[in-house]
């Protein structure tokens, strides 16, 4: 009995080996040896080549009787966190008929077993190549050995979202390197096929497609990528995905693509941003920001923090571009939302977003100064601005922006017309933040000298900071003049002569040094 059971086991093994061998087509040439092994790598080049070979789709002998299936034959979505490997398998047997008689059930099961084995081989190899493509040396070796041609062939025939995701993922990693990215651009029809993947409804495929396109727009041949994306139905699709998906990663990747357009060459801005604004980009970003702010206020989900940050970065970048600035800066809803973020109490969790919000508010007020009137009496907003300084120690531009907003705030304070009770609230906030003010002035006292190379930035920083400190001085002096007429308990809780004197000395010292320069 043992002997009879061992025979089918050997047959199954041989069948599986044959199935794997069928991935290698004899008419596909190997790369010349002199091109393959000159590259220094810790991974055996022949191993990389063997992996690429196992991704080859089989050219069918009989088109009518050939079926190409993916890891999910019913196109169901595969979770990217699933570590089990599935891949594309190929059924190609012209002798099979549709009629299934007695005994065909077992034959069908054997066929599916072979198919499953082939799928696993494909996905295992694809996942390894995906990882290897992150390394520049391996990536260059891969493109020299026709990996792009193999991936394109798979994208043209596969019905599997998992296969598509792996193909896009490999190319996304390849696109992070200059030479492989040039190969992608020069591969005939490949960019168009990549753009076509934007019309899939699978989250992971779309994430990889957006990532790949973002890398393309950041490369030296970004114009070709922009030209492939410029058509209205494609741009509308990008906006639709951006606005309608509930997946945080997909929102981040789709808005990240927008950010790549903004940060690319000026011609890319002209090709893509004007049409996007006409299609309602500003409205989409407002809706996204509103949603993320509601999530931050009510749920505080850490995985959504990067989404909020990339939306703010996109808005901040758009507000300084001519074709976009007026619509972004004049939008009161955007202004109110970012002001609300400044007042968010737990800034450590979203510190990067708060810094970006400060930059955005500064740019908005530069274009629409009258909006400052709506915040001139918002004391939590003033306190929130000072609370952001500890997160900007290495960002002189962000500190410049914060001082700019603080100055616009304080120039609208009418201390001579205030009651003592109202004035003391301003004094309390200023005194409570005196250490923050002193640290910023002391730690970065040489920033203006360093930034003299950029006259516009240096001037704005010097003028805004100096103006803000002069207004602080004026408010404190007014309080000193009133304190003799105030009740004693009002003074003991909120201000002492020592604290006021110290902050006045800080402001005076900076103003003198600023004047001497």
From TrEMBL:
Task: List the InterPro entries hit by this protein, alphabetically.
Answer: ARM-like (IPR011989), ARM-type_fold (IPR016024), Synovial_Prolif_Regulator (IPR052464)
Q: Where is this region: Disordered?
A: 1-39, 84-107
Renumbered to this chain, the Basic and acidic residues biased-composition regions fall at 93-107
Identify the main location. nucleus
Keywords, alphabetical: Nucleus
- Where does this one sit in the cell? Nucleus
Q: Which family does it belong to?
A: Belongs to the SAAL1 family.
Protein name per the record: Protein saal1
Source organism per entry reads: Gossypium arboreum (Tree cotton)
């Amino acid at each position: 009995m043992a002997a009879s059971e061992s025979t089918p086991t050997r047959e199954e093994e041989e069948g599986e080996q044959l199935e794997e061998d069928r991935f290698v087509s004899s008419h596909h040439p190997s790369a010349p040896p002199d091109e393959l092994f000159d590259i220094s790598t810790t991974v055996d080049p022949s191993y990389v080549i063997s992996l690429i070979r196992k991704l080859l789709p089989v050219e069918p002998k009989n088109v009518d009787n050939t079926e190409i299936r993916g890891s999910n034959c019913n196109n169901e979505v595969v979770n990217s966190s699933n570590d089990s490997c599935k891949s594309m398998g190929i059924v190609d047997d012209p002798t099979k008929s549709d009629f299934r008689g007695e005994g065909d059930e077992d034959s069908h099961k054997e066929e599916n077993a072979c198919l499953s084995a082939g799928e696993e081989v494909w996905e295992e190899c694809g996942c390894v190549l995906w990882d290897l493509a992150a390394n520049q040396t391996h990536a260059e070796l891969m493109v020299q050995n026709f990996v792009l041609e193999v991936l394109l062939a798979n994208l043209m025939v596969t019905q599997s979202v998992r296969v598509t995701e792996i193909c896009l993922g490999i190319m996304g990693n390849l696109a992070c390197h200059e030479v492989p990215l040039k190969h992608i651009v020069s591969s005939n029809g490949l960019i168009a096929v990549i753009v076509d993947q934007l019309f899939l409804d699978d989250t992971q495929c779309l994430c990889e497609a957006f990532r790949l396109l973002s890398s393309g727009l950041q490369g030296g041949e970004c114009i070709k990528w922009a030209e492939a994306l410029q058509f209205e139905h494609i741009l509308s699709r990008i906006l639709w995905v951006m606005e309608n998906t509930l997946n945080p990663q997909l929102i981040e990747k789709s808005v990240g693509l927008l950010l790549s357009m903004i940060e690319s060459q000026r011609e890319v801005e002209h090709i893509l941003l004007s049409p996007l604004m006409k299609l309602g980009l500003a409205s989409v970003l407002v809706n996204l920001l509103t949603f993320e702010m509601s999530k931050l206020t009510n749920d505080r989900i850490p995985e959504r923090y990067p989404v909020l940050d990339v939306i703010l970065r996109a808005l901040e970048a758009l507000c300084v571009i001519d074709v976009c600035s007026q619509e972004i800066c004049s939008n009161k809803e955007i202004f109110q939302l970012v002001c609300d973020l400044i007042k968010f109490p737990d800034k450590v969790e979203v510190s990067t977003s708060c810094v970006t919000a400060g930059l955005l508010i500064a740019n908005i007020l530069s274009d629409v100064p009258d909006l400052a009137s709506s915040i001139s009496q918002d004391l939590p907003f003033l306190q929130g601005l000072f609370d952001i300084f500890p997160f900007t120690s290495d960002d002189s531009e962000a500190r410049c922006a914060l001082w700019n907003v603080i100055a616009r705030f304080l120039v609208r304070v009418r201390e001579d017309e205030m009651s003592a009770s109202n004035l003391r609230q301003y004094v309390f906030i200023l005194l409570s933040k005196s250490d923050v003010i002193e640290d910023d002035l002391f730690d970065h006292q040489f920033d203006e000298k360093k930034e003299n190379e950029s006259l516009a930035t240096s001037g704005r920083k010097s003028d805004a900071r100096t103006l803000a400190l002069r207004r602080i001085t004026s408010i404190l002096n007014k309080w000193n003049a009133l304190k003799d007429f105030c009740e004693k308990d009002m003074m003991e809780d909120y201000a002492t002569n020592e604290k006021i004197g110290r902050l006045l000395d800080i402001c005076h010292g900076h103003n003198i040094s600023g004047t001497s320069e």
